[in-house]
Amino acid sequence: MIFLKFTKEKTRAGEAMEAHKAWLAQGFSDGIFLAAGSLDDGAGGAILAFGEDRDALEARVAADPFVREGIVTAEITGFTPTRTDARLGFLKVAG
Question: pTM above the 0.70 mark?
Answer without folding.
Answer: yes
